[in-house]
Amino acid sequence: MSGARNDCCSSPLPPVVTGGYAPEGTYEVNGGPKTCKSPTFSSTRGIIDLYDAFGYFPQMLQGADRLAASLEAMAQEEWFTTDTTEMKAAYQTFGQEAEPAKHVGSLWKLVKAAREKYPDAHGWAGFGLCWGGKVVALASGPDTPFKASIQGRPGRVAREDAEKISIPHICLAASTDNEEGGVDAYAEVFSQERRIGHVETYGTMFHGWMGARANLEDEANAKKFERG
Fold first, then answer.
1. What are the backbone angles phi and psi of residue 70, rounded to the nearest 5°?
2. Which ranges constitute the DSSP H helices of 25-181?
3. What gap in Å lies between CA 64 and CA 57, rounded to an integer?
4. How far apart are the C-alpha atoms of 119 and 158, rounded to whole Å?
5. Cβ–Cβ < 8 Å for 53, 98
6. pTM of the entire structure?
7. Per-residue pLDDT tens listing for the chain (228 residues)
8. Cα–Cα distance between 84 and 64 in angstroms, integer?
């Protein structure tokens, strides 16, 4: 992912690359699964970024790079292989093998490993898209290792998840993400006293607008991708 920027608060990010994006950073094994990290971890903040069911797509990597550039740290976990054949096989049984609750422990393990490897990063946040967002939400309850967490175009949004979240949390949704009322339930829960949360719906966007299905050649999608 992209490197740390000391002037991130005063300098705008570069425009979104609409095609042929070349991700920065390196891949490594950190706490088990293969991860992708930004070139430098000189910041006191870090982010664990979980992708959606489609894995390391250019749109996802570009989004992670932009977060790294603005917040100065990024680590992204890979839960499935990027080999096309194996990825298809994994996706066919995704509902069983990737049940979000099963991966909360792996996420906490990654945070622990990242803390040990990058001791200067004292505060860590979790960010996830769709399936990854569900895992992050489940990992944001009592005793969470995160200081804050974010779900982008969330999947399987449920009131009980929001009720257990114990840290500041952001949910960025498309209008279609609220078909079963989960996004409205999040907003209701976060409106309660002593809750710190923000829910925003991108009414003109579709479910995949922030991740692997983002059409960055479409000006409207690119603008919402950049804002998110």
1. -90, -30
2. 58-71, 84-92, 94-97, 104-117, 131-138, 159-164
3. 11
4. 34
5. yes
6. 0.78
7. 333 333 333 345 777 778 877 777 666 655 555 555 555 455 777 888 887 766 667 777 777 777 777 766 555 555 444 444 554 555 555 555 678 888 898 889 888 888 888 888 888 999 988 888 999 999 999 999 999 999 988 888 999 999 999 999 999 998 888 888 999 999 999 999 889 999 999 888 878 777 777 777 778 887 877 776
8. 22
